[in-house]
């Protein structure tokens, strides 16, 4: 018995996905063949870069449109950029306080448990603000690519 499928939907969807994956830049040009010539040649055939992306402020639902030229904005507005930077800095400061308390280690088991739970909660929030302040090269801070 196979898994249930939706006739007429699953197969074309699978084919579209396969088409899309075979047109990714990293599939068209394997890493060991990447030169300016091979990559420049492949770019027009590859799945294009998105022209709209969500605003980086996790509390914002707006999209940011990529301009034809010039600096590529990460936020829909200055207020979203400022809100992001403010919240990220506050979360980092909160986490520093929690880590300091854990390191000092004075208090009851229940107090330690309370601080550990709050640390996990603040880290959960901070994961939405993981883009570093020097936002120009995010691949340096991304998880390493696994080939397994
Ligand atoms: Zn925004």
Summarize the topology:
Elements lengths: L9 H13 L2 H4 L7 H7 L9 E3 L8 E3 L12 H27 L4 H18 L22
Antiparallel strand pairs: 1-2
Helix pairs in contact: 4-5
Characterize the structure shown.
This protein is mainly α and 148 residues long. The chain has a domain at 13-48. 47% of the residues lie in helices and 4% in strands. The protein is built from 5 helices and 2 strands; from the N terminus they run H-H-H-E-E-H-H. It has helices spanning 10-22, 25-28, 36-42, 78-104, 109-126; strands spanning 52-54, 63-65. Strands 1-2 form a two-stranded antiparallel sheet. Helix 4 (78-104) runs antiparallel to helix 5. The chain is elongated. The two termini are 29 Å apart. Zinc ion binds at residues 55, 57, 60, 62, 75-77, 80. Residues 55, 57, 60, 62, 75-77, 80 line the site of zinc ion.
Beta-strand portion reads under 5%
- The radius of gyration computed from the alpha-carbon positions, rounded to a whole number of angstroms, is 22 Å
Count of β-strands? 2
Structural class of the secondary structure composition?
Answer: mainly alpha
Strand order of the largest sheet: 1-2
Distance between the termini: 29 Å
The tally of helices reads 5
How would you sum up the global shape?
elongated
Low-confidence parts lasting 5 or more residues at pLDDT below 50? Answer: none
Q: What ligands are attached or bound here?
A: zinc ion
């Amino acid at each position: 018995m196979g898994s249930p499928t939706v006739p007429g939907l699953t197969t074309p969807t699978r084919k579209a996905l396969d088409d899309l994956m075979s047109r990714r830049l990293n599939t068209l040009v394997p890493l060991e063949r990447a030169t300016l010539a091979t990559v420049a040649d492949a770019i027009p055939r590859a799945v294009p870069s998105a022209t709209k992306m969500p605003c980086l402020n996790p509390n914002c639902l707006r999209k940011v449109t990529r301009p034809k030229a010039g600096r590529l904005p990460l936020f829909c507005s200055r207020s979203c950029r400022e809100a992001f930077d403010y919240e990220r800095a506050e979360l980092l400061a909160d986490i520093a306080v929690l880590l300091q308390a854990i390191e000092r280690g004075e208090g009851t088991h229940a107090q330690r448990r309370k601080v550990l739970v709050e640390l996990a909660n603040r880290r959960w929030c901070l994961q939405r603000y993981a883009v570093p302040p020097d936002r120009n090269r995010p691949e340096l801070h991304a998880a390493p690519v696994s080939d397994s």
